Amino acid sequence: MAFLTDEKLVIVGAGGMIGSNMVQSALMMNLTSNICLYDVFPPEVGPVGVAEEMRQSGFVDACITATADPAVAFTGAKYIISSGGAPRKEGMTREDLLAGNCKIAEGLGKDIQKYCPDVKHVVIIFNPADLTGLVTLLYSGLKPGQVTTLAALDSTRLQSALAKKFGVMQSKVTGAHTFGGHGEQMAVFGSAVKIDGKPLYDIVGTPEFPTEEWEQMKKDVTQGGAAIIKLRGRSSFQSPSLLSVQMIASVMGGEPFRYPAGTYVSNGKYDHIMMAMDTTLDKNGCTYRVPQGTPEENAKLDASYEHLCKMRDELVTLNIVPPISEWSKINPNL
Amino acid sequence: MAFLTDEKLVIVGAGGMIGSNMVQSALMMNLTSNICLYDVFPPEVGPVGVAEEMRQSGFVDACITATADPAVAFTGAKYIISSGGAPRKEGMTREDLLAGNCKIAEGLGKDIQKYCPDVKHVVIIFNPADLTGLVTLLYSGLKPGQVTTLAALDSTRLQSALAKKFGVMQSKVTGAHTFGGHGEQMAVFGSAVKIDGKPLYDIVGTPEFPTEEWEQMKKDVTQGGAAIIKLRGRSSFQSPSLLSVQMIASVMGGEPFRYPAGTYVSNGKYDHIMMAMDTTLDKNGCTYRVPQGTPEENAKLDASYEHLCKMRDELVTLNIVPPISEWSKINPNL
């Protein structure tokens, strides 16, 4: 069995629906011969059981370990994917969830700094990923290009919606990308989209695809997560798992990742923020370009950035992170 | 993207935990460009949502359809994997479950005969698979080598247990196979097992591996499903999914399947029964050899066969299948 690497990959939250799927996906893709399942081990979602299921699936060539001890999990880790946040529970306010998951991200960042400062790349997917990714990066001491967040689901949702609308294979829809934040404030860019080679904006506004229908589609894409919950009776778990494993595969030197990733941006225009850009993930980590769309799309991206800034500033107000002026004391790379 | 085939694969029960994992696994393994998700569509486990999640995972080259209509699902199908049984519910007796799932298997067999008599291979994994597979075969009109059942989990459990015991990579444990029925009556064969090249029976009975410990391990393997429920708080779903997709991959001409499959046996010694044999799965379907172990192991296999016969005869008594003498009227291949 040829693995992409023999370096250690840690899946955080490996006992959960997303995490256990990541483990399976990483093994199926032959990413690494050394995979460690880390979770907090509540008996009902134990990664020990997931590891055992993997062995019973016939993954006979990989070293599959499971632990609840962060020292064991992170020591020697070169790649990390974390879905290890807490879900929103009854009676929790939005701030409770935000504070809770950002505290978890702080702990993860500190564990990285303590146990695996030589880690090559970290992918964060627990909500709200724009912020948990930022907090992880801050406390990990890593370089901006070493921590990315899952942002691709909005783009694949747009790609899928356009493929269905025009009755073409999804591979025939190219350039369907969303940027900025994840969620209702995302910036959907249509100007680079081609449908079977034909620019989307040559079609929008014609009887084939009236402007109102395109506007509705963009709105639906921002509600894509809720749509899956309605269709499946549970949050999506296979798609976030697969896309994040594809992200880590690309930084391992595998197939290039085809969709935008969330990355740390601080370029004078957008500062001290984690947001989806036009990214490249490879062995050097993440590099980005600011996407250029129509004036309207660019304005939408600016608005998405402003929204993210407000949420980031809320973290400061809630005392979860210090003011930006002090960030470089915690992480000299920022 | 190079697919193993462009022929239609139908996943039955595609909305469930096992079925949705099968869909993902088949797509990840690039088995086919044409996959149909079939289920009964209760809103909480809809295959439409699973199909959408797959599109959102970036499987852009495959045609992924979802339907609740058996005519749409099975017409043109060349390969089928079914996890579409009903789970045991509170207050159900063992007979209720048996009767219910065998009725589902009868319906599946009849759908196959009606809509896709040219199907190449069918893998059945819903419980009790030895019997649901037999009933499916009977009513489908297919040849014995065209319907197999998932039996490999017992073998991978044994392989995993031995690897852990001896501290070797699982790939270093060869020949760890169980035969006959699935469950407590299975026949665990140790005589072909090698641990890193060394015959297991050279080690059993030594201080390194006392006979009692080996006996206990064999017992534990038969309880492997319950162990996963304890460790995960839910039935295994990733391992049955992956192994059954590996089975269908092998009959599509992909990698050879490495573990025993359940197959129809009628050779004078074992008659009119579905049980795990020493099997080969390839483009010609399933062929088998009766495994030869120690006299004790062979006796255990005979006992497992007797147990399966009792269960099969119960199906006759319950009027789920006619007496064996009438089977050839329903399926001339039996």
How does this model look, in words?
2 copies of one chain form a homodimer. Chain A has 334 residues and is α/β, with parallel strands linked by helices. Chain A has 2 domains: 143 residues, Rossmann fold (3-Layer(aba) Sandwich), CATH 3.40.50.720; 163 residues, Lactate dehydrogenase/glycoside hydrolase, family 4, C-terminal (L-2-Hydroxyisocaproate Dehydrogenase, Chain A, domain 2, Alpha-Beta Complex). The first copy, chain A, is built from 11 helices and 14 strands. In chain A, helix 4 links the parallel strand 4 and strand 5. In chain A, helix 1 packs across helix 9. The termini of chain A are far apart. Chains A and B meet through helix 1, helix 2, helix 6, helix 8 and helix 9 of A and helix 1, helix 2, helix 6, helix 8 and helix 9 of B.
Secondary-structure blueprint of this entry?
The structure is a homodimer of 334-residue chains.
Chain A: E1 8-12, H1 17-28, E2 34-38, H2 47-56, E3 63-67, H3 70-74, E4 77-82, H4 94-115, E5 121-124, H5 129-140, E6 147-150, H6 152-166, E7 173-174, E8 177-179, E9 187-189, E10 194-195, E11 198-199, H7 211-222, H8 224-232, H9 238-251, E12 261-265, E13 273-282, E14 285-289, H10 295-317, H11 327-330
Parallel strand pairs in A: 1-2, 1-4, 2-3, 4-5, 5-6
Antiparallel strand pairs in A: 6-12, 7-10, 8-9, 10-11, 12-13, 13-14
Helix pairs in contact in A: 1-2, 1-9, 4-5, 6-7
